[in-house]
Every structure is written in C-alpha cells, then in structure tokens.
User: Which sequence fits this backbone?
C-alpha cells in the first residue's frame, strides 16, 4: 500500500483491514495496518489493543502488558482489555495481578466467558481447584460449546477425582472437535480410572479398559507423534496382562520431550548375542523402578551376555550385589569397555518379549551387606514381631504420588495387636508424623542411610532383612523388600499403578508380596483393618 493510498483511508478502514488479516492469521499484514493507524494517531486505544494482542500471540507478554496498559489509560476500562492484561500477567508469572485484572474484567462484563475461563486456568495452576471449577462452570454456562474450556474443566475434574464427570466433558469436546488427538488421549486416561474403580467395587467387566485402549488408538491415529498416548496405552495393556504389546507401547517414552533416561550415542541392543560386545543397561526413573527392573541384569548374565548397569552413584553399593553384573556410575567409565550396545533398563522386557509367565523369578536378587546385617541384628534384637512401616511415597506436591500416601494413624489397627513393634523405614519430612500418633511409643525410629549422597538403601536393606514383615505404601521400600525376598504387604490406592495389575492380591514381580487394594478413594482405614487381620494371622 502506498503512502498516498494510506493517507486517503480512514482510521476505521485501516482497523477493519487489520482485523481481517488478523482473523486470517496474517499477523504481519495486520500489524502493518495497525501501525499505520498509530502513525496517524499514537493514542488510538483500539489499535494499541490489537497490537498488544499480536504481541501476546508472539510470546512478547511484557510488551503486551505495556501496550494494553497504554490503551487502558486512554479510554474507560473495557473488559476485553482487562482480560488480555490478565492473560499476559499470568504468562509473566504474576498470577495475583492477573486475577485482579480478570476480576475487574468480569465486574465490567459478567458475561465475558473468556475472562471466567482464564481465571479458572490460573486458579487451577495456583492449586485452588474448587474455586477454579466455579469459574469453569460459569465460563461453560456462557459458552457451552467451547472445546478448550471443556477440555480444561475435564482435566480439573480428573484432578478432583471425578472421572465420570471428566468423561462427559471430553465426550462433549470430541463431539465438537473430533480430530483433537489429545482429547481422545485424555478420554483414555479417565476410562482407565473408571475401570479401576469398577475393579475396586468388585466388578469384573473390563469394558472401560477396552474403551480406553480404543481412545488411545484414535489418538495415535490422529497424531502419530503423540508418544505420551502410546506410553499410556501401554500401561493399560500391562495392567490387563498384555505385556508384549504393553512394553512395546511403553518404549515410546524414549520420544518424550523429556525422556526418562539419558540416551547413549552407541547402537541400541535388540536382543542379539555378539562375542566381545557388552550390553549396557541405563537405569531410569525412580529408585523403585530401578530395583524392580534390576532383576533383568543378572537374568541376561545367566544367558551368557556381558552385562553392565549404568546407575546413579548412590545406588551402586546396593546394586553391586547383582550376580554377574558390572556396575558403573559415570558415562566416562564406558570408554574402557567398548564395543557395546545399550538399552534403557525398563525396555529389557520389550526386547525379550517378557510375559507374566516368563518374568525372571530368581528372588531374592539383591543381598544386604553382611557386616551391616550383623550390626542391625544386634541393634534390633528379636524379642518382638518386628514390622517395618513406610507411609509416604514421595513428593506431596505430585498428585500421582500423594494419592499413594497413607495417614500414619491408619496403622493403629496393626499397632493394637499384641507383641508387635514398628520400625520406621520412612524418610523425609513425613517422619515428623510419628509425634502426632497415639501409638508413637510402639514405633522405633532408626538412623539408617544418613548420607544423602551415597550408599542409598544399604542400611535399609540390612534392617529389612531382620524384619518379620514390611507394611508400606507404593514406594521404593516395598520394592526393596520384595527384591530381598522379605514378606511385604503393599497398600495401593484405588487408582493404582500398572505394575500391580488387576484383581489379584499377589504380584508376579515379588513372590513374598501381598497386595491390599483400596475399594474407595482416600479410604485407608477399612483397608488397614484388613491388613491388621492378615498380620494377626501371621502372629498365630
């Protein structure tokens, strides 16, 4: 457009043209029109607002805030401007100021659905789900056919433990936007949870799991690169007993934006046997995962493979007891043992085609250090029935982990049994819970594994070897007890992890383990009454 043509156009025409291009996604052309307006009239609030919108669309949120505030200073406050300001402030890490702006927008226009939705998203991120749900409800009352809000409310309802309601939102979103792959994946997740609820309530119908896999099938068909959907589908297959298909799907975790392991540059191992070539298994994920899958290293060694396990330094002393396996803790150590092929530790069963029937069952496969065993045997004595207890799985801010946590008070049913003594295997802040329970005099706290940087679990392994029983939540402690062959009762939430499978109180992974399952969310007390009855049987 020439300068003469621009001169003869009205502000309204320039803005109209800018909006046309803006709505077509032609931001550069739109910006040119808005800039032409501002060149003529630097105080044109309308143009400033639209330039602020483009700035936010391009991730320039600080610039967006400055521009929209200029616009607000020129005209009476408008809800749409305050809504944009709230969005930009939130992206700048200022949620309180963002909520303030959005509340002002809503006071000016209570029917602005976008402001209610933005407020809901901020409150969700701030850990205020109940208030967030109110805002989502209002947004969807005003705009019931908005897929983003349906999807976001569905995610919040999942967080609040309402999978059936979340499913309704996802189904509605899919009806409006059937090609949204992520929504099909979300639907699969809630169907999996509904299936677990069915199992907890004594139902045997697996239709929810079948439907969940179907949703993941549609998700990956629509978006081949949706690797999280493959991995989640794999977990359902593992849970329902299809380990070959499940582990194959679970291998897609290698393609995550943040993989669960650090890949090596050497060739992958695909199960072949090559003379003079070592297999390096790269440990990944949490302590419990490493202990659970470490069994495959000695199993491969017995097949004639030269096996190396690469682990973090603190885990090396415990894992050095694996038969026929070399332990290294630094990638630099691999320079001296090439040629090699490598594999993430949790991908070994995929390569081997492992099933529940062919899982290596040579348990125990970890061995406590003899000197420590002797020392702890003397400290603990043998006068009472000693039960190791662990009630908190990990970071309380991670919902998936927090659901595994058990109130220490639930252990009172076991504490009431005559002749028992608790040995606290718990670490971290949760140890302070002992002070608040009436049976604290029955709990012996031990000073084990005090060095946070080395020798993880060496003392704990020695202590567990001297116990009559371990009772704990889904954590690394029950994996350690299982790998040592110590009797262990594992209490799992209603929405349980894939590795505990379905409708069984035993585990193919650990012959000495018995699984106790919640039959209602957050209801640990009835479950621990059952555990106490099982402990009482052992005392007879």
Assistant:
């Amino acid at each position: 457009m020439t300068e003469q043509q621009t001169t003869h156009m009205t502000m309204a025409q320039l803005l109209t043209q800018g909006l046309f291009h803006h709505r077509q996604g032609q931001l550069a052309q739109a910006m040119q029109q808005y800039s032409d307006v501002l060149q003529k009239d630097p105080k044109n609030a309308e143009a400033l607002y639209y330039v602020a919108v483009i700035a936010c669309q391009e991730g320039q949120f600080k610039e967006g805030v400055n521009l929209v505030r200029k616009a607000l200073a020129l005209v009476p406050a408008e809800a749409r401007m305050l809504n944009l300001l709230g969005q930009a402030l939130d992206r700048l890490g200022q949620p309180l100021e963002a909520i303030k702006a959005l509340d002002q927008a809503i006071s000016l226009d209570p029917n602005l659905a976008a402001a209610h939705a933005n407020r809901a998203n901020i409150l969700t991120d701030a850990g205020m789900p109940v208030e967030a749900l109110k805002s989502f409800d209002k947004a969807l009352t005003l705009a019931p056919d908005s897929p983003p809000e349906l999807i976001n409310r569905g995610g919040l309802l999942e967080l609040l433990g309402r999978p059936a309601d979340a499913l309704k939102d996802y189904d509605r979103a899919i009806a409006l936007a059937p090609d949204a792959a992520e929504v099909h994946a979300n639907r699969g997740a809630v169907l999996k949870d509904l299936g677990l609820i069915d199992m907890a309530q004594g139902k045997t119908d697996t239709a929810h799991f079948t439907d969940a896999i179907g949703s993941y099938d549609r998700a990956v068909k629509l978006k081949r690169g949706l690797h999280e959907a493959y991995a989640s589908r794999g977990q359902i297959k593992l849970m329902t007993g299809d380990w070959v298909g499940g582990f194959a799907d679970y291998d897609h975790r290698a393609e995550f934006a943040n993989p669960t392991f650090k890949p090596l540059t050497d060739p992958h191992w695909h199960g072949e046997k090559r003379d003079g070539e070592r297999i390096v298994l790269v440990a990944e994920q949490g302590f419990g995962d490493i202990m659970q899958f470490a069994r495959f290293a000695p199993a491969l060694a017995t097949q004639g493979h030269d096996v190396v396990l690469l682990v973090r330094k603190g885990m090396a002393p415990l894992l050095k007891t694996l038969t026929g396996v070399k332990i290294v803790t630094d990638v630099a150590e691999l320079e001296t043992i090439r040629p090699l092929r490598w594999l993430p530790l949790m991908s070994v069963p995929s390569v081997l085609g492992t099933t529940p029937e062919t899982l290596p069952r040579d348990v125990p496969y970890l061995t406590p250090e003899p000197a420590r065993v002797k020392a702890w045997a003397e400290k603990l004595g043998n006068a009472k029935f000693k039960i190791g207890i662990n009630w908190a799985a990990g970071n309380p801010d991670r919902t998936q982990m927090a659901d595994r946590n058990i109130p220490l008070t639930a252990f009172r049913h076991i504490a009431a049994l005559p002749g028992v003594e608790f040995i606290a295997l718990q670490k971290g802040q949760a140890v302070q819970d002992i002070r608040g329970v009436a049976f604290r005099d029955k709990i012996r706290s031990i000073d084990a594994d005090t060095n946070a940087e080395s020798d993880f679990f060496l003392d704990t392994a020695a202590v567990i070897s001297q116990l009559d029983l371990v009772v704990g939540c889904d954590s690394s402690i029950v994996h350690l007890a299982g790998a040592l062959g110590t009797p262990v009762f594992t209490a799992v939430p209603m929405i349980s992890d894939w590795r505990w499978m379905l409708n069984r109180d035993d585990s193919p992974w650990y012959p000495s383990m018995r699984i106790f399952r919640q039959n209602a969310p957050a209801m640990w007390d009835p479950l621990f009454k059952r555990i106490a009855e099982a402990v009482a049987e052992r005392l007879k």
User: Anything to note?
Assistant: Strands lie at 278-282, 306-310, 325-328, 340-344, 385-390, 420-424, 443-445, 469-473, 488-492, 513-517.
